[in-house]
């Protein structure tokens, strides 16, 4: 097979880092369930493999595939998205440094900054990610090492202008890190817009089947990626071979899944727009969405996540979550099955009463790839009062 970088996205997702197995011709990357590797004489490593914390062929295949899909220099696969975020921040920052984070960051990301990295000595300032001037205002010259953004954000679906913020970061000698979990490299490739690193919770769309927890860092610069890998080897939060296999398997269908997630989400937005019980709808594909123009510039389509407020307030939002049947009441997102949740009391409970608190009448949908008529019927009955 030639250099997979010259292939289209769908081809890369299926083939990058995944040549047929040398030994057997197996078309699928084997799950290398081994902790150690026989050496051909002392120090005679085969393909560099020595011990599986340091390197494992299944994990390596996943890393090659992710690096290719994000058009990065190197990817490192972790045991969770949080482990990936923590590793990147500890590689790039030192105690005494400062980071700008988005107002409505993923709850776990906020908790990492607030409860783990703050005591370690890393300061952070929340700023609205969709407001470049506000982010510039939150920078502390000489101290700010990272501008951290999510786009679209969770759960408010705010859009940050990646190219504009990459310029700001460059100007202030900081790194722009983009959490690309919601968009995935199929819908948006931050490294091609100037971001320095991308993080993923591969638990979500990358894995896509709600059967694995994993994470990844992808860097534009190989040296930075190598440093993250060294940090991971020293601290140990690697993706296990079976987990790496599950994500690799999920990636093969990422493009077709994302197309259907987007198709279904667009149909559901159309339905919600005309429903009396529904208040504000947050979906970057809507023309009246504050980030619509930027989203159209940097995303292929607008994704499978929708949040909306209930005109009648929190009780009504609770009712909708409890009445939904096909939409399963659960945290997480990005799987083939549709999920519904109340962020203020579920995924975002940890940011209640912080600057990152979300409205208590907000319902978040992770739109799956089931038959659209069944999804619409379920929302119709859940919204009926
Ligand atoms: C889930 C999630 C994370 C954390 O990932 P885990 O795999 O749960 O550790 C980080 N960022 C976003 C946007 C997420 O949705």
Number of domains: 2
- Secondary-structure-based class equals alpha/beta
Strand order of the largest sheet: 1-7-6-5-4-2-3
Number of helix segments? 13
Q: Using the coordinates above, name the CATH class of the largest domain.
A: Alpha Beta
Heterogens:
pyridoxal-5'-phosphate
Q: What Rg do the Cα atoms give? A: 21 Å
Can you give the mean pLDDT?
96
What does this structure look like?
- The protein has two domains: 9-252, Type I PLP-dependent aspartate aminotransferase-like (Major domain) (Aspartate Aminotransferase, domain 2); 254-383, Aspartate Aminotransferase, domain 1, CATH 3.90.1150.10.
- The protein is globular.
- 37% of the residues lie in helices and 15% in strands.
- The protein is α/β, with parallel strands linked by helices.
- It contains 13 helices and twelve strands.
- Bound molecules: pyridoxal-5'-phosphate (PLP).
- Residues 80-82, 106, 108-109, 150, 154, 179, 181-182, 201, 203-204, 213, 215 line the site of pyridoxal-5'-phosphate.
Q: Which keywords apply here?
A:
single chain; 385 residues; alpha/beta; Aspartate Aminotransferase, domain 2; Aspartate Aminotransferase, domain 1; 2 domains; 7-stranded mixed beta sheet; binds pyridoxal-5'-phosphate
């Amino acid at each position: 097979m030639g250099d997979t970088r010259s292939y289209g996205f769908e081809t890369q997702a299926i083939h990058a880092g995944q040549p047929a197995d040398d030994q057997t011709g197996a078309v699928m990357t084997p799950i290398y369930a081994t902790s150690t590797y026989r050496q051909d004489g002392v120090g005679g490593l085969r393909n560099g493999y020595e011990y599986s914390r340091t390197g494992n062929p299944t994990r390596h295949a996943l890393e090659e595939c992710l690096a290719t899909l994000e058009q990065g220099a190197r990817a490192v696969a972790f045991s969770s998205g949080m482990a990936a975020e923590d590793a990147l921040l500890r590689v790039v920052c030192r105690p005494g440094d400062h980071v700008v984070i988005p107002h409505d960051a993923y709850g776990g990301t906020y908790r990492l900054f607030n409860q783990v990295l703050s005591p370690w000595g890393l300061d952070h300032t929340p700023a609205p990610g969709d407001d470049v001037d506000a982010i510039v205002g939150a920078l502390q010259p000489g101290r700010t090492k990272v501008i951290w953004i999510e786009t679209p954000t969770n759960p408010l679906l705010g859009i940050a202008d990646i190219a504009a913020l990459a310029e700001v970061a460059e100007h202030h000698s900081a790194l722009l890190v983009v959490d690309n979990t919601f968009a995935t490299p199929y819908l948006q490739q931050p490294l091609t817009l100037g971001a320095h690193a991308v993080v993923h919770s591969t638990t979500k769309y990358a894995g896509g089947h709600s059967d694995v927890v994993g994470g990844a860092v992808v860097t534009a610069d190989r040296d930075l990626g190598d440093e993250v890998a060294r940090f991971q080897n020293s601290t140990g939060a690697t993706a296990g071979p079976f987990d790496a296999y599950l994500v690799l398997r999920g990636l093969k269908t990422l493009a077709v899944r994302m197309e259907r997630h987007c198709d279904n989400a667009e149909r559901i937005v159309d339905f919600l727009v005309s429903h009396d019980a529904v208040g504000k709808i947050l979906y970057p594909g809507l023309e009246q969405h504050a980030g619509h123009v930027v989203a159209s510039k940097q995303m292929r389509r607008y994704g499978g996540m929708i949040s909306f407020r209930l005109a009648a307030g929190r009780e009504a939002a609770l009712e909708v979550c409890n009445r939904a049947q096909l939409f399963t009441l659960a945290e997480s997102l990005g799987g083939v099955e549709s999920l519904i949740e109340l962020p203020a009391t579920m995924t975002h409970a940890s940011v209640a009463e912080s600057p990152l608190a979300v409205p208590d009448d907000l319902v978040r949908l992770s739109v799956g790839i089931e038959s659209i008529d069944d999804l619409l019927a379920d929302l119709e009955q859940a919204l009926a009062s």
